[in-house]
Amino acid sequence: MSALPTWETFHESVRGVNKARNQDRCLVRGAGTAEDPLILTVADGHGSAAYPRSHVGAQYATDLFAHRAFEFATSVARRDRAGWRGRLRDYARIGLPERLVRDWQGKVLGHWERDPTPDGDPASPGAILRLYGSTLIGAVLTPDLFVAWQLGDGELTVVDDDGRVRLPLAPARAELGDETASLCTRNAWQLVRVHWEPLPDPARAPRLLALSTDGLSKSFVSDDGFTEFAAGLHRRLAERGLPGTAEDIPRWLEEASRHSGDDTTLALARRPVAGTDGDGAGGGGDETAGRAADETAGKVAGATAEEAAGKASSGEAVGGAAGEGVAEGGAEGVAEDVAAGAAEGFGGAAGEAAEKVAEEPGNSPRDPRIHDEETGRP
């Protein structure tokens, strides 16, 4: 089987408006081969007063995921016994989440033992873990397998070869407000969502894989706005290539952070296709891709501005903020702000993220939600 083409990768994190410290962390490594798997991960430390060490928890989360994901992916390359796929799938669904959470908790408790101040003296290990609370999204790609894990909020976004955008780890039901599952949650491994997608042909691998913290998605008025952004990013990359787009992405993240009020982090990997991308020989799709990107930006700007104006006039929250932007600037001001952001791909109203609370109910013990692309069933 031929190896996947070389992946282009990028990662960036922007501190939220008026925040003293960026609590997000991200990591990208590897080439996508059997010996050097492609690994992407982002973590969102909760950041409020109840989680003063969540930046440390997020760093541990990304580092530990990269280590465990590499072990997992290289075991795929060593498969030589009957039933390897079923055993690996079971390990991805149960064993790896359990081991990852256990590793994280051990690292956190060790950090507390070495440096127990100035956060007081929590009465229990659970209270200590809470100080470090963080979400986590991670993905690994080998030439014939794509697997991803998610605990808590944020987005795993996939763009296929035909331009279709999908979010395979979106929760079955929306989380309430700013509550989210967390590594500090009791029995956190039970809440991990897993995506399992064999790749019998390397050409079926995603064209674009993006992991982002919720500071990006919260900057949009609607889920459709975020999907349009992902599609537009894919087209822009096809037009200019990653080197021609990378300098713009931090500016987009800063704009998103201004609207969401939260730290905003994006890690992506792109699989170029020789002879079809704008950065390849010929570049025949440049003009078409450019027009499509411009049209998308205009549609998003118009739609989000109209929606924001309607919500502002009725006093509804816009982009997750509790109507404060409406009170300060009125419907017209909010609509203009949203339109300006949407022209760059964003469409939310500014607002500080509320405190993230741990537990998400609903999963039975040792039975995390798993999406299996082989069967199409959860």
Describe this structure in words.
Residues 279-369 have low confidence and may be disordered. This protein has eight helices and eleven strands. It is of the alpha+beta class and 378 residues long. A hairpin with a 5-residue loop joins strand 6 (155-159) and strand 7 (165-166). The protein has helices spanning 54-77, 84-114, 125-131, 214-217, 223-245, 249-260, 286-314, 324-343; strands at residues 8-14, 24-29, 38-44, 136-142, 145-151, 155-159, 165-166, 193-198, 208-212, 264-270, 370-372. Helix content is 40%, strand content 16%. It has a six-stranded mixed beta sheet, with helices on one face. Strands 1-10-9-6-7 form a five-stranded antiparallel beta sheet.
Secondary-structure blueprint of this entry?
Elements: E1 8-14, E2 24-29, E3 38-44, H1 54-77, H2 84-114, H3 125-131, E4 136-142, E5 145-151, E6 155-159, E7 165-166, E8 193-198, E9 208-212, H4 214-217, H5 223-245, H6 249-260, E10 264-270, H7 286-314, H8 324-343, E11 370-372
Parallel strand pairs: 8-11
Antiparallel strand pairs: 1-10, 2-3, 3-4, 4-5, 5-8, 6-7, 6-9, 9-10
Helix pairs in contact: 1-2, 5-7, 7-8
* Arithmetic mean of pLDDT: 74
Q: What coarse outline follows from CA principal-axis ratios? A: globular
Radius of gyration: 21 Å
- The N- to C-terminal Cα distance equals 29 Å
The oligomeric status of these chains comes to single chain
Number of strands: 11
- Secondary structure: helix percent: 25-40%
Task: Give the topology string: H per helix, E per strand.
Answer: EEEHHHEEEEEEHHHEHHE
Low-confidence stretches: 279-369
The largest β sheet comes out as: 6 strands, mixed
Number of helices: 8
Strand order of the largest sheet: 2-3-4-5-8-11
Percentage beta strand: 15-25%
Report the structural category.
alpha+beta
